[in-house]
């Protein structure tokens, strides 16, 4: 039995499933309301390590150990573009306004223009463990291996705040950006009000 992960629904009474299969293929399966099947199988050459869906539901981005990020049309499964990046991606995330895709991995944060695929900026972040975007699209919150939590301006790359914390393993923000929530290696959860 092939394990499947379903990650989408189409609102016009048709159903679309994106299925991740062995050998790093992504299979886009679409059933119309007449139950006719449309299928297209495409993929990366190595393991897919991360993915994100754009807030406007137009694109899926997938990151792989093959050193690429691929943009797919959400409803058709068509490949839009392929970007070359570092092979050890931990996470990719669209900004909330859909303008940029941010990739995290190998102590590097890359900011890509969604529409053109051009690399906007590369930030070298020593000892990066994990990161999260603020909902206002202005900041990246970074957890570092030395216990620092850095808030970095997305466009300038400037560190605007540093907080000393226990070693953190994951981080996110509340939807309105008023809280930063992090999980620590110790098993504790920390919440900061901004």
UniProtKB/TrEMBL annotation:
Listed Pfam families: WD40
BP-aspect Gene Ontology terms: transcription initiation at RNA polymerase II promoter
PROSITE patterns from the UniProt entry: WD_REPEATS_2, WD_REPEATS_REGION
InterPro entries assigned to the protein according to its UniProt record, in alphabetical order: WD40/YVTN_repeat-like_dom_sf, WD40_repeat_dom_sf, WD40_rpt
Cellular-component GO terms for this entry: transcription factor TFIID complex
Any one Gene Ontology molecular-function term assigned to this protein's record: RNA polymerase II general transcription initiation factor activity
PANTHER family: CANNONBALL-RELATED, TRANSCRIPTION INITIATION FACTOR TFIID
This protein's name: Uncharacterized protein
Record lineage: unclassified sequences, metagenomes, ecological metagenomes
């Amino acid at each position: 039995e092939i394990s499947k992960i379903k990650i989408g629904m189409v609102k016009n009474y048709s159903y679309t499933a994106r299925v991740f299969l062995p050998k790093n293929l992504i299979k886009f399966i679409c059933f119309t309301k007449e139950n006719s099947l449309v299928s297209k199988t495409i993929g990366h050459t190595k393991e897919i390590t991360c993915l994100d869906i754009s807030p406007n539901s137009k694109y899926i981005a997938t990151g792989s150990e093959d050193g690429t990020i691929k943009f797919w049309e959400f409803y058709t499964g068509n490949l839009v573009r392929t970007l070359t990046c570092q092979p050890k991606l931990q996470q990719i995330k669209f900004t909330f306004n859909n303008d940029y895709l941010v990739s995290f991995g190998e102590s590097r944060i890359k900011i890509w223009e969604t529409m053109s695929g051009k690399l906007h900026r590369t930030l070298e972040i020593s000892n990066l463990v994990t990161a999260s975007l603020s909902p206002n699209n202005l900041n990246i919150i970074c957890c570092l291996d030395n216990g620092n939590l850095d808030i970095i301006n997305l466009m300038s790359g400037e560190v605007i705040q540093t907080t000393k914390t226990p070693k953190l393993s994951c981080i996110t923000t509340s939807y309105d950006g008023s809280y930063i929530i992090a999980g620590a290696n110790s098993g504790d959860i920390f919440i900061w009000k901004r």
